[in-house]
Amino acid sequence: MAKANERKHRIAIVGGGPGGYEAALAGAQLGAEVILIERAGVGGAAVLTDVVPSKSLIATASAAQSVRDSGRLGVQAFVPGGDGKPVRPEIAVNLAAVNKRLLAMAGAQSVDMLRSLEDAGVRVVQGEGRLDGPNAVVISTAAGGGGTDFDRVEADTIVVSVGSSPRELDSAKPDGERILTWKQLYDLPSVPEHLVVVGSGVTGAEFANAYRTLGSEVTLVSSRDQVLPGEDRDAAGVIEREFTRLGMQVMSKSRATSVSRTESGVLVELEDGRTIEATHCLMAVGSIPNTAGLGLAEAGVSLTDSGHIRVNKVARTNVPSIYAAGDCTDFFPLASVASMQGRTAIMHALGDFVRPIDLRNVAANVFTYPEIATVGWNENSLAEASDVAKAVSHTIPLSVNPRAKMIGFTDGFVKLFAWQASGTVIGGVVVAHRASELIFPLALAVEHRLTVDQVASAFAVYPSMTGAITDAARALHQH
């Protein structure tokens, strides 16, 4: 905390996404003078056009799927037909109403975050910021940043948290009507008749799952031999089987070379000469950092060839006064990681106790149906590090879990990894309904280096899905 007669530490934050927001709150809490510059709205793309609306859309789709699957629990919804006999009704999805709700909710979340910053004493400016050397930011309030600069703010510490944007291909330029990025999906007035999703990573898989559940015919174009190539192979296999069960067409080892408009929709051309005709196409081929034109290189900040900002485990760049957080960095592109980077950056800059971020401890989730949640080491990372022989694992299928049987959701598993010599828990994979809520016990175990015996000695409610975690831990007990 600054003394009464001492000048406060000045912090300028460019970008108000999760990283910038948390950095601003941390700075205000520690007594600094904080200004945050954001061009779209507090929360950034994560709140306005990405995480909040997309996961809300996925939750809506999951609700629809739960209704469809309720028959296996003995729940039957019928209406009388013309002959008086019961007729099972179809589930109707009003996508325009759904999208209106999602965007209103995202906007309200942004306003709530703005008020939190203002209540904390943070000065929030709507505009665009660019660095003017290592200790100053120039702000423009004109649309697009092309107007007259209205302010130059000197700062002891600068945090860059400008996020990323969907990657666009020249051969498949989005038009916001038929060829879309994930930011443009919320303008659709109705569920697409036939949606081609190009890209089978996390974003592509999540939206393919959601729109198929909402009623679209979906074709997923995957350049790999399996969807979700970055995930645990067993987990990805569960998801691909679920996609097939839902009636989705998954085109593995297929690469799209171009997408063009037709009179009635789109034409997707594949590398092997095949074509797909559909009504809409979602391009989910990665993202690029929003670092161009920010004056980073001029300030001496080191960037990767892709334009990402190089940072260390306390979110600091090679320039001592400049930190960065979120998708614009070369760290893990998750909102939770961005938030942690933002807080860590400020705590480090102000000399508070700070714990370097260990990406091995990061919990992540794929919001398909079922979800995939992971933390720590997995089979892929152990193999890459040649440590497979040093680790043991055990898998509990949900088909033997009593709670999973009760709720009628047995497609999935809990997999636990531990070091063979010590029994220390080093990672876990959960494939289940709301796996994102089940991974936290394993994240705690990994973070605090608990052993399988310590995890097994904790009481799990019976019956519960978490019981599968303690069961897996007990199976790894070392005699």
UniProtKB/TrEMBL annotation:
Keywords: FAD, Flavoprotein, NAD, Nucleotide-binding. Residues 10-342 form the FAD/NAD(P)-binding domain. Binds 1 FAD per subunit. The keyword Repeat does not apply. The keyword Protease does not apply. InterPro entries: FAD/NAD-bd_sf, FAD/NAD-binding_dom, FAD/NAD-linked_Rdtase_dimer_sf, Pyr_nuc-diS_OxRdtase, Pyr_nucl-diS_OxRdtase_dimer. Belongs to the class-I pyridine nucleotide-disulfide oxidoreductase family. PANTHER family: MERCURIC REDUCTASE (PTHR43014), NAD(P)H DEHYDROGENASE (QUINONE) (PTHR43014:SF1). This is Flavoprotein disulfide reductase. It comes from Leucobacter chromiiresistens. The lineage of its organism: Bacteria, Bacillati, Actinomycetota, Actinomycetes, Micrococcales.
